[in-house]
Design goal:
- The protein has 215 residues and is mainly alpha-helical.
- It contains 8 helices and no strands.
- It has 2 domains: 47 residues, Arc Repressor Mutant, subunit A, CATH 1.10.10; 130 residues, Tetracycline Repressor, domain 2 (Orthogonal Bundle).
- Helix 1 packs across helix 2, helix 4 packs parallel to helix 6 and helix 5 packs across helix 8.
- The radius of gyration is 20 Å and the shape is elongated.
Length: 215
């Protein structure tokens, strides 16, 4: 029988190992198809109205086969959240590895946030729908903040872990504004350029302050 996650959403490691990894390629492809179908159905119907039967049909998978991989709708939702978390972690790790200048970090973070698109919308909706959503959101947010803080510290934008953490909080909140910007024709591009400039100037300010600080 294929393995499936039994993670408790209220435990500290709720997203860890939430995505089943069958030993056979065919099983892994089936898991990917189920998760892709779940994203579509959750987006169309919402978490509460979506059913495992409908997701299985969309994935062209027998309902019994789907339950071998995902024991419940909640387990499937947690797998999608884990997938989203892994996507963000990979993007931030790539930015960290690139050793970018402040302006380039701002550009890369903007590109990452805009690229999340509907995947982020689905993740936010699932976090709202699952029990203990405040705790889930806090752990999700803290993980992103920690990675941002490491990026800023490694780039020489902060003199202390506390400064790096504060910078991460500010930049993350600026990035969260992006999906809320008005999308009227002709305005969105200009607003995005302005937002990138704001973040770049802030990071450059941190860099200059860090370099000027007495050693």
């Amino acid at each position: 029988m294929a393995s499936h996650s039994t993670s408790n959403p209220h435990s500290p490691g709720a997203f860890a190992n939430a995505i089943p990894v069958p030993p056979q390629q065919r099983g892994r492809e089936r898991v990917a198809a189920i998760m892709a179908a779940a994203v579509e159905v959750f987006a169309e119907k919402g978490y509460e109205a979506a059913t495992m039967t409908e997701i299985a049909a969309r994935a062209d998978t027998a309902i019994g086969s789907m339950y071998r991989f995902f024991a419940s709708k909640e387990a499937l939702a947690l797998a999608l959240l884990h997938q989203y978390q892994l996507h963000i972690d990979a993007e931030l790790d790539a930015i960290a590895a690139a050793a970018l200048a402040p302006a380039a970090i701002a550009e890369a973070l903007m590109k990452m946030m805009l690229g999340l698109g509907h995947e982020r919308d689905t993740a936010v909706a699932l976090l709202d729908a699952l029990g203990d959503s405040a705790n889930l959101r806090a752990r999700f947010r803290d993980g992103v903040r920690s990675r941002l803080a490491r990026i800023f510290a490694d780039a020489g934008l902060a003199d202390s872990p506390a400064d790096a953490r504060n910078a991460a909080i500010i930049v993350l909140n600026l990035l969260k504004v992006l999906p809320k910007l008005p999308s009227e024709s002709g305005r969105l591009h200009a607003l995005l350029v302005e937002m990138q400039t704001v973040i770049a100037l802030y990071l450059q300010h941190l860099h200059d302050d860090a370099r000027a600080a007495p050693r």
